[in-house]
Amino acid sequence: MKTLVCVKRVPAPGARINLTPDEKAIDARHLSFTVSPHEECAVEEAIRLKEKHGGTVTVMTLGPADAEEQLRYALSVGADEAVLLATDGADWDPQATAAALTARIKEIEGSGAFDLILFGNESADSGGYQVGIRIAHALGRPVISGIKGLEVDDETVTARRETDSGSEVYRLSLPAVVAVKEGINLPRYPTLPGRLKAKKAEVISGPASASPGGLFMDRLFTPPEQKSVTNILGRGPEAAPAVVDLLEELGLM
Amino acid sequence: MSRVLVFVEDDDGVVTETSLQALTMAATIGKVEAVSVGTSGMGGWQIEHAMLTDYAPAAIGEALAQLVGAEMPAAVMAAGTERGNEVMAHLGALLDLPLAANITRVVQSGEDWKLTRVRWGGSLLEECTLTAAVKLATVALHSVEAAPQGTASPITVFTPELTDAHIMTRVIERVTLTEGITLTTAPVVVSGGRGVGSPEGFGVLEELAGLIGGAVGCSRVVTNSGWRPHSDQVGQTGTRVAPNLYIACGISGAIQHWVGMMASKTVLAINTDAEAPMVTKADYAVIGDLHPILNAIVAEVKSRKGST
Ligand SMILES: Cc1cc2nc3c(=O)[nH]c(=O)nc-3n(C[C@H](O)[C@H](O)[C@H](O)COP(=O)(O)OP(=O)(O)OC[C@H]3O[C@@H](n4cnc5c(N)ncnc54)[C@H](O)[C@@H]3O)c2cc1C
Ligand SMILES: Nc1ncnc2c1ncn2[C@@H]1O[C@H](COP(=O)(O)O)[C@@H](O)[C@H]1O
Questions:
Q1: pLDDT tens sequence across B38-63
Q2: What is the largest CA-CA distance in chain A?
Q3: Rg (chain B; Cα; Å)
């Protein structure tokens, strides 16, 4: 079982987002970086598949050199191989991202195809809902998104998606592409030996080939905050009657 | 005026509210023609094929690509639902066209479209330019109010050519859950964060929710710690809720949580920290340790209910 997982490095803003003066990016000077929770779960799922069926897990990212940090995190929880497609740090549109990742995947697959390629359902920052589907088409493989349960046998992957009223099941023949959602599993934390191993591991790095698509970001802005004055109902348990007055007012009693 | 095809979804033959919103936004930029798989009650293009017996995203994307090839519309739009985004991504991949997901605004600018689209699940917006022979976009949920639609247009059946490969990705089995009050439908959500302290700590949140017909929600720290299932998580990568009252207990108010509950009509924060963003953004707050406060609220609710 050879699995590839694609992850994207993003800043992790806290209670509010500050932008750079040119309004093209989040001011990340005081922020840590991460990947989407969906992608964390994709990495975890790939490692569980390896533990169950044997094989290898490769992680790949297109991003600045610093994105090595996110690849090493994946290595520290059990991925075997890490590939960085280096950019100058600017955000690439989904078509360009998919084209560059596809080109690199094809190179790597010269030595054998991945049985499964996992994506997050959507990237944390740009949320385009499409990079995985574009890559699947470029590779001529079946793809399903929004997956919260996976099972693999010799020839197929069975995938479960949640809906408002329950769930739906899909079955795709391998090799296949699946975009997963947080909740498919509970990701593990790295162990100390895992961290040490990841620190020493090699990250295979090379430039990404750019072929821009037709969607161009002009400027970012934060939605207007509807500022309400907070009505402090009180401190401690003595506030309970005021809270229940509010419940009555809202017709919830 | 340029023609805009809108892929609409339906619930048992009735067009959905979010698809109506997409139709409404599409009407601001062109002459709208609805496209549905089977009947949507809207008329317009009706995709029919013997193999399209259930939802099959790649096949629907392929059918739309063939329809675009035959009709050459100026644009194709859909609602920014799970299915809408998925089908449109297939279409974009098949035609090698850009797709702008989750837009909140569109204006024509020469040959281009100037768009506003959602990032970070709604806590950040982006102004962007879409340059393409056929524009593809999905409409962020609830970014416009659905305008009332006139009488249904006449139906034109479109029969795509599909192969087994197109139809491989389809629903082969469906499990229907009959739940009582769910997170998305509950009038009150009693939600807990790291401040709840433990899985057992949620007992009093459950009790309060039970008393006032609510559901229990939580933050990502809680699901990540294994205290509650992910189905309870509110936020960017969890569930979006819009109850009459959201009670945030021991939740700091990170934007990724906030975007999941900002549509709540009223927010009550219970937190030890009067400076926590959840407190400063809430309509009401109680400052202090959440457990004694919730115990006192439960006791007060019980005594008032008992006395009526
Ligand atoms: C891409 C991405 C997506 C994300 N998606 C989500 C998501 O969907 N949902 C989500 O929730 N988060 C999400 N997060 C995580 C988010 O950034 C925060 O880490 C998380 O919401 C914090 O959870 P919390 O408020 O419970 O914990 P904390 O931030 O640690 O806050 C705990 C709060 O409890 C208060 N407190 C402590 N003890 C008590 C007590 N005894 N009584 C009362 N108050 C007390 C503290 O004052 C504090 O305000 C996402 C992050 C990223 C990067
Ligand atoms: N720069 C990138 N590098 C690697 N994978 C990416 C990148 N951008 C997006 N992806 C993958 O594609 C998924 C969907 O991204 P998007 O289409 O932007 O929502 C993400 O969850 C990632 O798994």
A1: 888 888 999 999 999 999 999 999 99
A2: 70
A3: 23
Torsion of CA A139, A145, A151, A155, to 10 degrees: -30
Name residues whose C-beta falls within 8 Å of residue B129's C-beta, 6 or more positions apart in sequence.
A215, A216, A218, B109, B112, B113, B114, B115
Taking the CB of residue A158, how many other CB atoms lie within 10 A of it?
16
Residue nearest to atom 7 of ligand 2 (CA): A8
| In contact, B258 and B296? CB cutoff 8 Å | no
| Distance between B98 CA and the closest CA of chain A, angstroms | 5
**Closest to A206 (Cα-Cα) out of A61, A62, A65, A86:** A86
Radius of gyration for the alpha carbons in chain A, expressed in angstroms and rounded? 21
What backbone torsions phi and psi does residue A162 show, to the nearest 5 degrees? -90, 145
Give this prediction's pTM.
Answer: 0.97
Minimum distance, in Å, between the CA of residue A158 and any CA atom of chain B = 10
**b/e burial code for range A79-104 (CB count within 10 A of at least 16 → b):** bbbbbbbbbeeebbbbbbbbbbbbeb
Q: Which helix (H) or strand (E) holds A91?
A: none
Q: Are B217 and B191 in contact (CB under 8 A)?
A: yes
User: Predicted ipTM?
Assistant: 0.97
